[in-house]
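Teaching assistant here, posting this on the class forum so everyone can see the example we discussed in section. The complex has two components, and the goal was to see what a joint structure prediction looks like when all of them are supplied at once.
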Amino acid sequence: MDLDINTIVTEQAKAAKKASKKLALLSSAEKNKALYAMAHALETKTPIILKANMLDMEDGRQKGLSAAMLDRLLLTTERIAQMADGLRQIASLDDPIGNGIMSHRRPNGLDIRCIRVPLGLIGIIYEARPNVTADAIGLCLKSGNAVILRGGSEAIKSNTILASILAEAAHSAGIPEGAVQFVKITDHSAVDVMMRLNKYIDVIIPRGGAGLIKRVVENSIVPVIETGVGICHIYVDDKANMDMATKIIINAKTTRPAVCNAVETVLIHQGIANEFLPLLCEKLKSYKVEIRGCEKCCQICPDLKLATDEDWATEYGDLILSVKIVTDMDEAIDHINNFGSGHSEAIITDCYTNALKFQKNVDAAAVYVNASTRFTDGNEFGFGAEIGISTQKLHARGPMGLEALTTMKYLIYGEGQVR
Amino acid sequence: MDLDINTIVTEQAKAAKKASKKLALLSSAEKNKALYAMAHALETKTPIILKANMLDMEDGRQKGLSAAMLDRLLLTTERIAQMADGLRQIASLDDPIGNGIMSHRRPNGLDIRCIRVPLGLIGIIYEARPNVTADAIGLCLKSGNAVILRGGSEAIKSNTILASILAEAAHSAGIPEGAVQFVKITDHSAVDVMMRLNKYIDVIIPRGGAGLIKRVVENSIVPVIETGVGICHIYVDDKANMDMATKIIINAKTTRPAVCNAVETVLIHQGIANEFLPLLCEKLKSYKVEIRGCEKCCQICPDLKLATDEDWATEYGDLILSVKIVTDMDEAIDHINNFGSGHSEAIITDCYTNALKFQKNVDAAAVYVNASTRFTDGNEFGFGAEIGISTQKLHARGPMGLEALTTMKYLIYGEGQVR
């Protein structure tokens, strides 16, 4: 059995890698044509996608998945139309392939030029959200990469039909056969096989919960881009505009508490805590946010729940916020660099010096002054769709658009030069 | 014992990570001052370095190291002066830290700016060449990174004294204490500990033979940049200038056969093989190069040794060259993409169409037309010193200068924007 899984997954990766060589040379026009065909196929084949999804939903209910999980799993005609629109949006993005990174002439007359080329074959390991299937395939193809996907067991029927419709439409529109591979094996050993295939797979991007990401980071010999875990902070300086601070905190906590750019901890300078904390708590309560405060917070607002050490290291993904009073900005910076996940951090201040110091000293992908952490997102940053938000430092950091799916190649033009 | 090694290495990494926070904020002038001080320290302390190196050389002779290994290990006054000059050259390079990568204003008025920042803490695992100690420390400090080095047992006494002199000089000149860490434990478990410290170490760069690199790639949960393995090819097209081809092949094979950008296999179009191969073989023999040819080659030049399948996958690192006759360029490209290590590949041709096709279809860091593969090198590419040559696609590809030791950070300037 294990041998079979190994053979099946390896053959899929091999076929995709082979296809990637031709795919890398397609023009933007050819790739865009395929993306439009794929969008169209999703729309015309909506009924059979919905049918497969109903089976997943039924299984999910029997397995006792939570309402939130079931909602993530659910497909509707509207959600499928959104997937199709997403593919068309990807078609409209600038193609980074072939763009120059640098170009210069050396003293010996050699012309050296460096351009963007596709990575080759990208592995995506994800959980129960079927929309990832269309997004990931679209972004990989647009950037000239083949893709091998392995989705979670909860959405296996939906993902299988989606991937098969998309692969077929892509191939019919001129994408090399085999460029889109979906691993149907839900056994975990399929993931183990993928993580060893560094001969064929150039990078693995895990999308999902912290457990999945940790397992891939710790076990993959294929290079990995870590995504998604967000323990984001907002530091309210003693020079802050308190109205602005409240507005930004409410936005960052309540608009979509489940996403990674939502705020989890607010740090308040002690100089304004007596005045600001009660105001903030009142506002948060009207949004039904549970507050867990440090000891000093509980002294000011005795009805708060006391935060434990664990709270500072927790991504709630829910309407819960931890709040801590700090003696100065240095303590806030230390706290953030210690407990943050390197995602998005913000300072609210009217002091130029503090803003500059915060941005220099906080070690994260995105460091904000006077704005909500919720903006860390490919669309909001102006990159169009994103394949994820990198919280590591190598290769890509922050929202990953099409450029993050490329590597580079040096082209050297000689006239017989030797060294 | 294992627990001790774990504690010692972890504490070193922790101290270096702590220092990296301050180091990241130093100006170029401050970092350059330290590099000059380090260069000066190497020169004034040459006698004690030579003394330590003599002990390593003695151990090496007793262990029966090869003459080539002993030569790599050997330090002389002149070689130490070269190390010092290397540090001064690094001081003269442009500092990438703080350089802008992009900057734009979003429709909601948010200004988003992306700049280069240091990676943080870089781990270097290397073998018996003591000059790597000075190079790596210099490049890491110049790019604002702390560094933890672990050298091979053969050079342990030389490397320990070098690292200690450099760390002390750096600290005296204003580099934060702890920024340069040298792991003195030669037991392999010290490497195992480093490879698990992804909480502190941001990237590991292995420098050495294929065995070391494979072990690190397969076992490290810290992200790795693969370097150095070079199975480079030169394809001689039927439209090639044969004199130029000969000159380039001789250069690429014989000037420094042990380095990774030396050529290992020559592919010859069958259309010119009858004429070109005998010419090439004669020339190569005058340089004492052993030739291993495919069957067709042996038919043309019956005194050639027959190549085995293993030859096509071997980095000789020596005056040995494998030669294969191909029926067309497609076969050459397939051979290269199959056996190449993604390092440097060249075509010799006067045909525009073939040059373009070769550069598009060959998947390697550097693809040359009519020039020697020996140019793949940080200095030759105009980047100054290099920390290695990446043969992977993620983060960095080809010669890695200072920019390869940086990551990026988004700075967002708001006026109260919410989403």
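For the discussion questions: Chain A touches chain B through 64 residues (CB under 8 Å). The mean pLDDT of chain A is 96. Think about how each of these relates to the inputs above.
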